[in-house]
């Protein structure tokens, strides 16, 4: 299939992109790596008369780390995330998760901004961003606002972003915790049947803090505060992990699809969550 005809815009700055968005409203969408939007256009599931390519906007690219805060431009590709050594040192879970997204060809083009703005429950970065308590910086004609990743997702493909806003950056604190991103998929390059991001810190032999978030197990990414609460203060022993998994499973609502029936997904989720917690604890 080829997409319906569209007009292609390639602004060189954010103001230019915002003005095309303001001019065409619902008829315009921004294009990042195109690995989610272009297939939707080819399948005629998205009709976009005005496509605004963000490639030339230098302000949307790059990774900075200062005073323990990591800032990633929305147009930074998964490939760049994987290969950035300072980012790996400050937040190694990003590389671990990004390496499990699709395949190298998709990762060369797919951006972190497109991944989190898309609102696809199958995307891996939204759950990870919730686990990290990241903030999304959005710019519109009325100015800039910051939205926590934990408040951003409303339902599948529906987010807190206004149609005329552009996600410019993502920020979160450097990690000083045990971490793990675990993902079960049908084959290499596939979206998750179930995935889980876990961060755990230690005080003596006890869990001091925990953050657990899941991917593709509801129509939005799910941060399970109950799972974290079940771990805190324990020695992360078998009973505590079992309680955390049970709490996390209460928070998700998977649906049957070509990745399996609900009972299968709940079973896989349980295994993935317990593996993520165990690995994060082993690194704490
Ligand atoms: C074969 C295949 C397998 C894949 N497997 C996985 C996987 O396992 N895990 C996974 O997470 N992803 C997977 N993906 C998706 C891939 O990671 C996408 O690239 C990513 O989801 C979207 O990023 P993009 O830069 O391509 O965005 P685009 O496709 O360009 O845009 C996606 C959406 O986000 C909007 N958008 C993009 N950037 C911004 C911005 N800065 N501000 C506001 N809105 C914006 C666009 O308007 C569009 O609606 C796969 C894709 C393919 C083709």
List the helices and strands and how they pair.
Blueprint: E1 7-9, H1 14-24, E2 28-31, H2 37-42, E3 50-53, E4 63-66, E5 69-73, H3 78-83, H4 85-90, H5 92-98, H6 104-109, H7 112-117, H8 124-131, E6 135-140, E7 143-148, H9 149-152, E8 153-155, E9 158-159, E10 166-173, E11 178-185, E12 192-203, E13 206-215, E14 222-223, H10 225-231, H11 238-251, H12 262-282
Parallel strand pairs: 1-3, 2-3
Antiparallel strand pairs: 4-5, 5-10, 6-7, 6-10, 8-9, 11-12, 12-13, 13-14
The structure holds flavin-adenine dinucleotide.
Description:
The protein has three domains: 7-53, Uridine Diphospho-n-acetylenolpyruvylglucosamine Reductase, domain 2, CATH 3.30.43.10; 61-173, Uridine Diphospho-n-acetylenolpyruvylglucosamine Reductase, domain 3, CATH 3.30.465.10; 192-282, Enolase-like, domain 1 (2-Layer Sandwich), CATH 3.30.390.50. The chain contains twelve helices and 14 strands. The chain has helices spanning 14-24, 37-42, 78-83, 85-90, 92-98, 104-109, 112-117, 124-131, 149-152, 225-231, 238-251, 262-282; strands at 7-9, 28-31, 50-53, 63-66, 69-73, 135-140, 143-148, 153-155, 158-159, 166-173, 178-185, 192-203, 206-215, 222-223. The longest helix is centred in the C-terminal third of the chain and has 21 residues, at 262-282. The mean pLDDT is 97. Flavin-adenine dinucleotide binds next to strand 2, helix 6, helix 7, helix 8 and strand 10. The site of flavin-adenine dinucleotide has 29 residues, from strand 2, helix 6, helix 7, helix 8 and strand 10.
């Amino acid at each position: 299939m080829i997409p319906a005809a569209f007009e292609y815009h390639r602004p060189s700055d954010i103001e230019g992109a915002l003005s095309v968005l303001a001019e065409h409203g619902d008829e315009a969408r921004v294009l990042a790596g195109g690995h989610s939007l272009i297939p939707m256009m080819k399948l005629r599931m998205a009709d976009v008369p005005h496509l605004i390519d963000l490639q030339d906007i230098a302000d949307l690219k790059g990774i900075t780390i200062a005073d323990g805060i990591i800032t990633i431009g929305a147009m930074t590709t998964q490939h760049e995330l994987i290969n950035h050594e300072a980012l790996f040192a400050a937040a190694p879970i990003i590389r671990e998760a990004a390496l499990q997204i699709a395949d190298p060809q998709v990762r060369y083009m797919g951006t972190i901004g497109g991944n989190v703005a898309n609102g696809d429950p199958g995307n891996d970065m939204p759950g990870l961003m919730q686990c990290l308590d990241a903030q999304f910086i959005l710019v519109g004609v009325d100015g800039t606002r910051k939205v926590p990743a934990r408040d951003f997702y409303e339902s599948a493909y529906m987010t807190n972003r206004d149609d005329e806003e552009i996600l410019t950056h993502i920020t979160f604190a450097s990690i000083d915790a045990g971490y793990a991103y675990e993902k079960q998929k049908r084959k290499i390059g596939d979206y998750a049947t179930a995935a889980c991001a876990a961060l755990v810190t230690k005080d003596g032999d006890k869990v001091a803090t925990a953050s657990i978030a899941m991917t593709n197990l509801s129509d939005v990414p799910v941060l399970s505060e109950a799972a974290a609460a079940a771990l805190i203060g324990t020695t992360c022993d078998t009973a505590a992990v079992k309680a955390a998994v049970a709490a996390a499973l209460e928070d998700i609502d998977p649906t049957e699809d070509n990745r399996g029936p609900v009972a299968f997904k709940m079973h896989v989720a349980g295994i993935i969550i317990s593996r993520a917690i165990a690995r994060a604890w082993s690194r704490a």
